[in-house]
């Protein structure tokens, strides 16, 4: 591994950065970080003593960073997350320990918003399903494929109106959708109708787009009661985290036709996708890739390097998250 | 058939309307037209003499209405088309004969614009392809699916900036795309950059979205020269008519990787879809269904009935096309 090359890791002048990741991760962070930083991974021979003095850590992808992990690094001052949501990091402990935490800020927001809209269009207009229909040669046989449903006029309930939610709203407004939302609190200066309760939002919406952070409070926020409120023509799009939805109940509702359809980029037990849905034409099943563009990957590099460089230069961090 | 029920077709007071369609059409126009009009189809026993006095004709779907057909109806004053493009109707002869022609106006425009954007998102972000990847259980095996490409910042060349083209532009601007266009002539009061030549537009674009009318002049407008100008990362979306593109050359360019991808709703020889593309992940193959929503079907009924009622009441037609 490039980060282990040479024996002078303790002597170099580049700042030392802990890399915390699954061994199977293929995000190749080392390739672009090592030009600027000395990288210390748990399998490095010098790890046991160098890690004690490390001030900054990069948490790659969704590798869990637990209280047990954090207690191994007594000098830690900064955790650099590489995603928008940081539910895999023990943020409460970081807060109590005075460790600052950064996420990717808005680096992924546009791509995720586009993908949410793409999934919703796909479910409503049945694009993936119609593509399957064409590829299997069914058009000349069947004559036509089932109708979809028009985007314009749909009442779309956005669950979590942060930066991504606002970008989704902007896109769907251009298509004539009516935007409503729920969030921890009503946003000032936002014209869209606010609902304090997600079930009330669902009852007044044709679709829910789930893009809030996963916390103890939002885990299984979308459950059978919310889906019952949404109703049998309702569509659910999830580009947040799998556990925001009770997946077993979602699958039951889809299989029984008790909601209209779903576009899912995230799942409770990734990379497992519920096999019960593999034959369904009213779902689009995406393998957690709403951020997967070269442009987002470049933006990720910029914000991770920017946060680390700012930290070591005692400058303001680019995307520090606020503890609440 | 409901329109043939009873023997009093010549005696009723409802206005008489010729129905011109393929026998295999499943658009069920009769069901909703016969409440207001007497419908006369070619297989009706009274057709030979009643057709001579018919003043209005509904041309269902893409059934060709040729000069030979038109000459059978000497009293014809109105042809009601049921699509946006009327390339299947001999409009020049209608013009010379003083027969007015209506299309569906803007009844389908929003749905077609949404579908164009949906196809473009799908090709760029590889949504259908990633859905196939998930459904075949490849995610746990392969770890991840290939990157797509970001929508924001893409230079999108719209070929034909009519009502549909403008709605596409509005949607893609909300996603951060840069809109350019070609059209018969530069549009006043349009901020987007105009190109007189489609090859020049292609050379300055990351994607072409083809949504112009099919005429003698636009047949095979998108050919190998245009595709060469567009380049190997370029994407083509076609929601206009299949023959706007030289399909054989398009397939060659896609198979050889000389353009980046395509989202096709229309084909030169429908319902045939080029089988060479069935295995390609950089294309989305849709069976001519950009208008296929219940909302568009309802809007179609309204505009067809509205045009017929206006005609028989000597009022202005809702969506008369202008001869140029």
Automatic annotation (TrEMBL), chains A, B:
PROSITE patterns: D_2_HYDROXYACID_DH_1. GO terms for cellular component: cytosol. It comes from the Eukaryota. Gene3D superfamilies: NAD(P)-binding Rossmann-like Domain (3.40.50.720). This is D-isomer specific 2-hydroxyacid dehydrogenase NAD-binding domain-containing protein. Residues 118-290 form the D-isomer specific 2-hydroxyacid dehydrogenase NAD-binding domain. The keyword NAD applies. It holds the Pfam family 2-Hacid_dh. Keywords: NAD, NADP, Oxidoreductase. Residues 52-321 form the D-isomer specific 2-hydroxyacid dehydrogenase catalytic domain. GO terms for molecular function: glyoxylate reductase (NADPH) activity; hydroxypyruvate reductase [NAD(P)H] activity; NAD binding.
């Amino acid at each position: 591994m490039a980060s282990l090359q040479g024996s002078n890791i303790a002597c170099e002048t580049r700042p030392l950065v802990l890399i915390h990741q699954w061994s199977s991760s293929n995000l190749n962070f080392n390739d672009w970080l090592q030009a600027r930083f000395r990288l210390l991974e748990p399998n490095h021979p010098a790890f046991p003593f160098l890690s004690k003095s490390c001030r900054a850590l990069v948490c790659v992808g969704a590798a869990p960073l637990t209280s047990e992990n954090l207690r191994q690094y007594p000098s830690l001052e900064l955790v650099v997350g590489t995603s928008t949501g940081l539910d895999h990091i023990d943020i409460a402990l970081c807060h109590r320990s005075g460790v600052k935490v950064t996420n990717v800020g808005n680096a992924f927001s546009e791509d995720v918003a586009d993908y949410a809209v793409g999934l919703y269009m796909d479910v409503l207009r049945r694009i993936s399903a119609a593509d399957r229909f064409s590829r299997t040669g069914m058009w000349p046989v069947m004559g036509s494929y089932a109708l979809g449903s028009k985007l314009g006029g749909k009442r779309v309930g956005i669950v979590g109106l942060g930066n991504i939610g606002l970008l989704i709203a902007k896109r769907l407004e251009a298509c004539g959708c009516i935007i409503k939302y729920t969030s921890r609190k009503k946003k000032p200066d936002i014209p869209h109708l606010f609902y304090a309760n997600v079930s009330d939002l669902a009852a007044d919406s044709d679709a829910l787009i789930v893009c809030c952070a996963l916390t103890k409070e939002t885990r299984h926020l979308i459950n059978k009661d919310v889906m019952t409120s949404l109703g049998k023509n309702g569509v659910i799009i999830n580009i947040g985290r799998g556990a925001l939805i009770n997946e077993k109940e979602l699958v039951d509702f889809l299989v029984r036709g008790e909601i209209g359809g779903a576009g899912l980029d995230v799942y409770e037990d990734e990379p497992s996708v519920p096999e019960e849905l593999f034959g369904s034409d009213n779902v689009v099943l995406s393998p957690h890739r709403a951020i997967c563009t070269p442009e987002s990957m470049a933006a990720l590099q910029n914000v991770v390097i920017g946060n680390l460089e700012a930290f070591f230069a005692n400058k303001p961090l680019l995307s520090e998250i606020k503890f609440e």
